[in-house]
Amino acid sequence: MNIIPIKAQAGITGFESPASEYQTLPMSLDEILIDHPAATFVGLAVGDSMISHGIFDGDVLIVDRAARQTNMDIIVATLNGVFMCKLYERKKQCLLSGSDIYKTYHLKEGDDFLEEGIVIRSVRNHRQSTKLAKCLR
């Protein structure tokens, strides 16, 4: 894969020709973004509940089922039949949104809760991917 090391600064008015600075990485985007290929799936963020954590509607989520769990992970889970992406405060057993519009949810006895995996990376879609859109039809 070829990359151009662009270091954009505030107030930049243009770019010098980067052609002379191409570098070749000895890996693919899959290798850069995915740590455990056999335990990873890709999802699409829907809604605005995680915007303060940098996840926006339409972003691609890279979810790892083999990542080491830590407190305050951003996770994908099912809660009482609803698939969601939330910040998981493991110590207090609660799910937090990244928006003041949504309340904190404290897990209760009897909840059907399953952590599907940890969001290890998200990719911002500035333009909709036609290939991704075809997959989701």
Please render the helix and strand layout as text.
Elements lengths: L1 E2 L19 E2 L4 H5 L6 E5 L15 E5 L8 E7 L2 E8 L4 E3 L8 E2 L6 E11 L6 H6 L2
Antiparallel strand pairs: 1-2, 3-4, 4-9, 5-6, 5-9, 6-7, 7-8
Shape: globular
- Series of H and E elements: EEHEEEEEEEH
Task: Estimate what percentage of residues fall within beta strands.
Answer: 25-35%
Tell me the major beta sheet: 7 strands, antiparallel
Q: Biggest sheet, strands in spatial order?
A: 3-4-9-5-6-7-8
Structural class: mainly beta
Fraction of residues in helix:
under 10%
Question: How many E-type strands?
Answer: 9
What is the overall number of helices? 2
Kindly, what is the distance between the CA atoms of the first and last residues, rounded to a whole number of angstroms? 29 Å
Overall radius of gyration:
18 Å
| Overall mean pLDDT | 85
Low-confidence stretches: none
Short description:
This protein is mainly beta. It is 8% helix and 33% strand.
What does it look like?
By secondary structure, the chain is mainly β. It is built from 2 helices and 9 strands; from the N terminus they run ββαβββββββα. The chain has helices spanning 29-33, 130-135; strands at residues 2-3, 23-24, 40-44, 60-64, 73-79, 82-89, 94-96, 105-106, 113-123. The strands form 2 sheets. Strands 3-4-9-5-6-7-8 form a 7-stranded antiparallel β-sheet, with no helix packed on it. It has a two-stranded antiparallel ribbon with strand order 1-2. A hairpin with a 2-residue loop joins strand 5 and strand 6 (82-89). The radius of gyration is 18 Å and the shape is globular. The mean pLDDT is 85.
